Amino acid sequence: MQFNTLDDIRGFCRDLPGGDDASAEAAARRQQNLTKPPGSLGRLEELALWLARWQRREMPRLDRVTIAVFAGNHGIAARGVSAYPSEVTAQMVANFAAGGAAINQIAKLAGAELRVEGLELARPTRDFTTAPAMDTADFLVALDTGWRAVPDEADLLVVGEMGIANTTVAATLCAALIGGRGARWAGRGTGVDDAGLARKGTTIDAALKFHRGLLDDPLAVAAALGGRELAAIAGAVLAARARRIPVLLDGFVATAAVLPLARQAPGILDHCRAGHVSAELGHSLLLRELELAPLLDLNMRLGEASGAGVAILLLRAALACHGGMATFAEAGVSGAG
Fold it and tell me: CB–CB of 12/3 below 8 Å?
């Protein structure tokens, strides 16, 4: 799919494929006949049905799981909104390639393929307090990078990110599209001190003031106030929807990346689940806004798809029960009267 304009994205979002009700209903009937009281596995049952709906089969599987991590750099890093310098982004991408990051270990444990994509790390986005972070062409290139990163045959896509200063970007997107000043959305991110936290809030407020003329256009906001890695996540989530691939979103930044999409049409994130709620200030507020109930709450705030990566194990547990348990008839166990 080639998006040449923001209107192309808007049109695409108005006509998205849905999940398969028949597969979900068949999976639900199976759940009713397994050797357990109805509903006793709680969200594990709901997750099995969700996977069945989007994989379009009564017995979903997780043979081919892809974790896509996108990395980008940001002009606003120069404003002192992170505890780390911008060069750490490229250094961490190298660490991913060498297998030394947390997500490498989690991906291996979860049986997932890890794909990492650095997006023009030597060319940070512009400081969005004085100019648009990206022009439309830059935004569309990044979106296309995310789209192309999704394999057609994936059973599940997990999206995450790496990018110094990108919690400030995420907080700015939330303030622009949901409302509130910088202080409502700015969190500690990589561990900034009180002065750094104040700078984050001031930076967000300055960006909102500078771009106040476009705040009613979510995709324009995504370009002007976003980042390349966030645009790539949005592209990957759109590609997954086009191919009916279920998606696990990681933390605050990955969830903020799809907020502009959620503003395009109802149900646009139906194929997505929140892998976890991070410890970053704004994530729980954002999840409530999007009506996404997180699968895990582990006080994590690392990014790089680490929280959603752990949630893959929860999905595997759901499918192990869904596919491996005996029915009442198979086990010779009497059902409820």
Answer: yes
Contact 62, 153 (CB under 8 A): no
**Which burial class, exposed, middle or buried, applies to 207 when counting CB atoms under 10 A from its CB (0-12, 13-18, 19+)?**
buried
Q: Strand, helix or coil at 104?
A: helix
CB 63 within 8 A of CB 154: no
Q: Is residue 114 helix, strand or coil?
A: strand
Mean pLDDT (whole number) for 9-35: 96
What count of residues does the chain have? 337
Which two structure tokens, joined as six digits, stand for 198?
Answer: 């104040």
Written as six digits, the tokens of 316 are 């595997």
What count of other Cβ atoms lies within 10 Å of the Cβ of residue 148? 14
pLDDT of res. 337: 59
Question: Under 8 Å CB-to-CB from 149, ≥6 apart: which residues?
Answer: 68, 70, 115, 117, 232, 235, 236, 239
Between the alpha carbon of residue 77 and those of residues 35, 83, 197, 200, 296, the distances in Å are 55, 10, 13, 10, 30
According to the 3-state scheme, what is the secondary structure of 14-65? CCCCCCCHHHHHHHHHHHHHECCCCCCCCHHHHHHHHHHHHHCCCCCCCCCE
d(CA 92, CA 167): 16
Q: What single-letter amino acid sits at 141? A: V
33 neighbors 327 (Cβ within 8 angstroms)? yes
Tokens of 49: 């049905």
Q: Is the pLDDT of residue 306 over 90?
A: yes
CA 194 remoteness from chain centre: 28
Residue (of 232, 284, 260, 238) closest to 173 by Cα position:
260
DSSP sequence for 278-336: -SSTTHHHHHHHHT---SB-------TTHHHHHHHHHHHHHHHHHHHSPBHHHHT----
For the chain, percent of residues with pLDDT exceeding 70: 99
Number of neighbours of residue 63 by Cβ within 10 angstroms? 9
**At 115, which helix (H) or strand (E)?**
strand 112-118
Catalytic residues: 304
Per-residue model confidence as pLDDT tens digits over 202-234: 999 999 999 999 999 999 999 999 999 999 999
